[in-house]
Design brief:
The structure is a single chain. By secondary structure, this protein is mostly helical. The protein has one domain. The chain contains eight helices and two strands, in the order αββααααααα. A two-stranded antiparallel sheet has the order 1-2. α3 runs antiparallel to α5 and α3 packs parallel to α7. It is flat and about 50 Å long. 17% of the residues are buried.
């Protein structure tokens, strides 16, 4: 008797089951998008934390300042939430489907950087991000059965 014989739950199909006309990939989009949102917010909080510390050199003092910065600690915590959501999404969706959605973080950070930190946004950046959005849209359409 093998482990699989003893526990048939260990055997999984490589294809995602369809439920009510929607694939498991499509049902996982919410988790993927939540992970993306938390990842983008985490990046923006980390940037705010680094801005509050000023320009640092790599030194024990700088590491201590970073390790005790409330904003940096909050940013790391937000990334932990993003990672947990990502792991849940991966348990429900194909990696090749979910991974392109992470590129949406670039767009959220572009907008957040412009609004919060007054970063200059060029036409080339906007065009690049539009290409990313088009690619994610194509991948998202592949989830429809």
């Amino acid at each position: 008797m093998t482990v699989v014989d003893a526990n048939p739950d260990l055997v999984r199909s490589h294809s995602k089951p369809k439920i009510a006309g929607r694939t498991a990939n499509a049902r996982a989009i919410g988790l993927v998008l939540l992970s993306v949102a938390f990842g983008a917010v985490g990046q923006l909080v980390l940037k705010a934390g680094m801005n509050s510390l000023g320009k640092l050199q790599f030194s024990p003092e700088a590491l201590l300042a970073m390790a005790t910065s409330p904003l940096l600690l909050a940013g790391v915590a937000i990334f932990c939430v993003s990672t947990l959501l990502w792991l849940l999404a991966l348990s429900r969706a194909d990696l090749s489907f979910a991974y392109p959605f992470l590129s949406l973080t670039y767009i959220a950070v572009l907008i957040g950087g412009a609004v919060l930190f007054h970063e200059h946004i060029t036409v080339d950046r906007v065009l690049g991000f539009l290409i990313i959005v088009a690619g994610v849209w194509i991948v998202a359409r592949s989830a429809k059965a």
